[in-house]
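In practice, a research group might receive sequence data for several interacting partners and want a quick structural hypothesis before committing to experiments. The following worked case mirrors that situation: the sequences arrive first, and a predicted assembly follows.
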Amino acid sequence: MTLTTAPRGTFDLMPQQALVWQWMESKIRDVLLSYGYGEIRTPIFEHTELFQRGIGETTDIVEKEMYTLTDKGGRSLTLRPEGTASVVRAYIQHKLYGQAPVTKLFYIGPMFRQERPQAGRFRQFHQFGVEMIGEESPVADAEVIILAHDLYCQLGLTALEIHLNTVGCPECRQEYKAALTSALEAEAEALCSTCRMRLVRNPLRLLDCKSPTCQEVISRVPSIHNYLCADCRDHFDQVTTLLKQVGVKYKLSPKLVRGLDYYTRTVFEVINNDLGAQNALCGGGRYDGLVAECGGPAVPGVGFASGIERLFTTLEQQGKIPELASGPQLYVLPLGEELTVVAFELATALRRQGFSVEMGNGTKSLKAQLKTAHKAGAVYTLILGEDEWRERQVTLKAMADGSQKRLPASGLLEEITELVSPRGPKVPLREE
RNA sequence: GUGGGCGUAGCUCAGCUGGUUAGAGCGCCAGGUUGUGGCCCUGGAGGCCGAGGGUUCGAAUCCCUCCGUUCACCCCA
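A structural hypothesis for the assembly, expressed as tokens:
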């Protein structure tokens, strides 16, 4: 059983689906490149410590979701559970801060978290994400949010919500945390057990607890917006102003805090409410302390990560996945075993001219082979039967309307070139 | 890690309160057309009914255990 089943929470992408993924990936790359982001490909695993330091020791990801292994040299390595830490590590390692004031990078690839799978959640899943490092202006926050918005628009998606909030800087957040804690301690009895834990360890995370009784208590608690310092207040106002300026709609979500420790000031999510319980298509925000925390200079950063499986589901729901035909241009169809060799030569010659060509099994009937060609989505079939081959001719049949005509094998290439253009590169003919 | 649903043909699923050789649709293969696909008709192949144990004269059906899967909680993409 285990031998013939992909591990829990993982899946195979079969050829038809892989076409769709290639399509999504190329769209994503097009948009990100046009916004000035360069692709970075980092290792799929890193030193465990990077994630512990970067993401935060008390986060769920680090506490219970990492795939960690010890290699033969005794090093602790971890399959990356997210992309930002690796990008920041590479940024520091390659001293990109010395090359330009602002660095704009994107990544796309698999991530790994050991959680129980459910709708929209996998153990190996795929994300793309952007990181803009070195820019502290709110313009950067706005650019990143608008990029996410525009990218989804480019893909044809509608009815998505942008949820926006700020979690302040370490200073004003500390004040807010204190206020929050004292406000909640009086009512600690009414909170759920995990929230009572959070009250001590990370009171901010308590805000988005889904338990109705907790929410009832939380609804009476002061908002972080009353505790922001002047700079954070100003920063957030400018972000919202910029979004309004370019007509990007958002919802203010004062209880949005996000689960990774590195966020400062702006945090946001893009939500698709039709996705089920795991409805975040993308999440991100500003992380002004992360680069320093990871051993680099004190430079600010902002970015987001977007789930590709969830993007796929959303595209599917909204009917935005185009037909991606994959049938061969030509289907060479020999009748009888003797002509199979001739057909094989012909198919090879056509492939070397860049045409996509499939070939039938010459021991099967014409009818059976035509059926196969039809199912494969062939545009034309080339029938190689004894009758025509006696005169060194083949029958070219258009599958769309069934029309067909005989052609001399010698002039075949010219005829075909007029009908279809090659999909692939020409292989140079070898010199005799 | 916790809880609920579901595991029957390649796929989607019937199979009532246990009762002889386990079914349908789609797909696949072949034939109806001595060399012509799509539509139609006919036939065929294909199942240790998730695995193991138990109850019973008898289990796909009832009970237990395990495995897988799915949804939800926690949390997140």
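Before designing any experiment, note the following. The first strand of chain A starts at residue 38 and ends at 39. The CA atoms of residues 88 and 291 of chain A lie 6 Å apart.
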